[in-house]
Amino acid sequence: MKIISSLFILFFVSPAVFGAPLGENASKSAKLHFLQAMLLERRGADREALVEYEKAFYFDPSSAYLCAEACELALEAGNPEAALPWAARLERLEPNSSRTLILRGRTQWALGQLAQAQAAFEAAIVLDPKSAESIF
Fold first, then answer.
1. What CA–CA distances, in Å, run from 20 to 64, 72, 112?
2. pLDDT of 44-85, one tens digit each?
3. Helices marked H in the chain — which ranges?
4. Long-range contacts of 101-105 (CB under 8 A, 24+ apart)
5. Residues 94, 65 contacting (CB under 8 angstroms)
6. What pTM did the predictor assign?
7. What residues have CB less than 8 Å from 22, skipping those under 6 apart?
8. Are 121 and 101 in contact, with CB atoms under 8 Å apart?
């Protein structure tokens, strides 16, 4: 369902109305690599999906959405080392976002950096108290 929804958003719904995940300026190449990453992720090919996210980011380096999706995938796949550069990219693109802080915290937690993770989680809650639900 996630794939069908994303296809619909990317190609048929006006970005001015709903906002496409990769932004209005994303190239077709970025969108195609993003879709390929989602398909691979759905099939459980996490490593290959991360490669496709990397390719998509090459064509759309301003996409915080791509960074967040790739970071989430790396964490879910049990690969916090792969999540770390995605979290850093996301932090450069959206430094004052609760989503960014939560993903940074989850990455640090997975790497055993508990004090830094706690600080990131607390900062996210200060920015958006409702974000506490997204931490775990």
1. 12, 19, 35
2. 999 999 999 999 999 999 999 999 999 999 999 999 999 999
3. 2-11, 15-18, 28-43, 46-59, 64-76, 80-93, 98-110, 114-127
4. 101/127, 101/131, 102/131, 102/134, 102/135, 103/68, 103/71, 103/72, 103/75, 105/135
5. no
6. 0.78
7. 10, 30, 31, 34, 56, 60, 63, 65, 66
8. yes
Treating both helix axes as pointing N-terminal to C-terminal, what angle do 98-110 and 80-93 enclose, rounded to 10 degrees? 160
What distance lies between CA 53 and its chain's CA centroid?
Answer: 9
Are the beta carbons of 124 and 135 closer than 8 angstroms?
yes
CA distance 49 to 35: 10
